[in-house]
Design goal:
The protein is of the alpha/beta class and 367 residues long. It is 31% helix and 16% strand. It has eleven helices and 14 strands. The strands form four sheets. The chain has an eight-stranded parallel beta barrel with strand order 3-4-5-10-11-12-13-14. A two-stranded antiparallel sheet has the order 1-2. α7 links the parallel β12 and β13. Bound molecules: 2-Phenylacrylic acid (8OZ).
Length: 367
């Protein structure tokens, strides 16, 4: 038995022919080895999920300064590029397509992760209320310092290098992490950005860093291989903005000028309620010229409904992809889903990472 739905129809994303409309959302798993290098288990994990229309990797920092949690992979060293190359080769061998999400956490970090134990950097010296995971425990986020104007070109350059490294590692494209209260979102939103220079104040000034990064990444990877993830109203990582609709209208206009291939939108509170604050996602979808990837709390029914209404082109699934390597097949066959185990989301070994069974393996793997 097989279910008919637009979710299982192909989609042309720039130069890539996706066999279905499912995207594996970027998911932080904290299993990088020494040197923040993705290891062989990561290659196994992503290749198990290769039947998704598109895989997006976990967020990967573009510099040591861009790291905010223990054991998250980077995309700035030769060893990291070599580790990621193993991942892309395994995914491609299984017939999949994979983008890497490139990331700078900004103020969401801890001195113990920073170069020379220094302060994390942000648009302004305002500490985010919250915890990060370092040294095996949850610890208060450190007090940040404001980036000097002269340091900003270096941040843009770190993203450019990340994109160049991504291509060298064999990725099919790059997703810029512009969401969830990390650096680019911190600059864009007035709850975290109190600058008085050309990167603060007006919407144009606050959006500038995100658009400058999008420009260099697109020129490095090709606009048809560059996407971006945003989260207009999420409260994640203590982020807020007093008027997100015109801010993101302006950002989308800037992304259109750069011809980015997709806009990936976390609708509502990341991993939480979809209706946390009013926001017109349909207006963003209509305004953006490329593909619209919808994310946050989607199940088959909602995905099917939204695709039929033409309110999205692709649907990104997070927790469901952690637990179901063959999610596309399971949804298409109406098969039961494995339940995700929260205790193994962040850090650890193969348990809760590469041991969720595909259909057919389920019987032999049952405990
Ligand atoms: C969960 C834990 C740590 C980081 C995000 C990269 O929210 C993350 C993240 C998620 O975008």
């Amino acid at each position: 038995m097989s279910t008919a739905s637009k979710l299982f129809e192909p989609y042309q994303l720039g130069p890539l022919k996706l066999p279905n409309r499912l995207v594996m959302a970027p998911l932080t798993r904290n299993r990088a080895q020494a040197g923040m290098v993705p290891g062989p288990l990561a290659a196994e994990y992503y290749s198990q999920r290769a039947s998704a229309g598109l895989l997006v990797t976990e967020a990967s920092q573009v510099s040591q300064q861009g790291q905010g949690y223990q054991d998250t992979p980077g995309i700035y060293s030769k060893q990291q590029v070599a580790g990621w190359r193993r991942v892309t080769e395994r995914v491609h061998a299984r017939g999949g397509r994979i983008f890497i999400q490139i990331w700078h956490v900004g103020r969401i970090s801890h001195v113990s992760l920073q170069p020379n134990g220094g302060a994390p950097v942000g648009p302004s010296a305002i500490r985010a209320k919250g915890k990060t995971f370092v040294g095996g425990t949850f610890t208060d986020i450190s007090e940040p310092r404001a980036l000097a104007l002269e340091e900003i070109p270096g941040i843009v350059e770190d993203f450019r290098r990340g994109a160049a490294n991504a291509l060298e590692a064999g990725f099919d494209g790059v997703e810029i992490h512009g969401a969830n209260g990390y650096l680019l979102d911190q600059f864009a939103k007035d709850g975290a950005n109190k600058r008085t220079d050309s990167y603060g104040g007006s919407i144009e000034n606050r959006a500038k860093l995100m658009l400058e990064v999008a420009k260099v990444v697109a020129s490095e990877a090709g606009a048809e291989r560059t996407g971006i993830r945003i989260s207009p109203v999420t409260p994640s990582n203590d982020i807020s903005d007093s008027d997100p609709q015109p801010l993101f209208d302006h950002i989308v206009d800037g992304l259109n000028a750069l011809k980015l291939v997709y806009l990936h939108v976390v609708e509502g509170a990341t991993g939480g309620p979809r209706d946390i604050a009013p926001f017109d996602y349909g207006a963003l979808r209509k305004r953006f010229n490329g593909a619209y990837i919808a994310n946050n709390g989607y199940d088959f029914e909602l995905a099917d409904k939204v695709l039929n209404a033409n309110d999205a082109d692709l649907i990104a699934f997070g927790k469901l992809y952690i637990a179901n390597p063959d999610l596309a097949e399971r949804l298409q066959r109406g098969a039961p889903l494995n339940a995700p185990d929260k205790a193994t989301f962040y850090g650890g070994t193969a348990k809760g990472y590469t041991d969720y069974p595909a259909l057919g393996e389920a019987a032999e793997a049952a405990q």
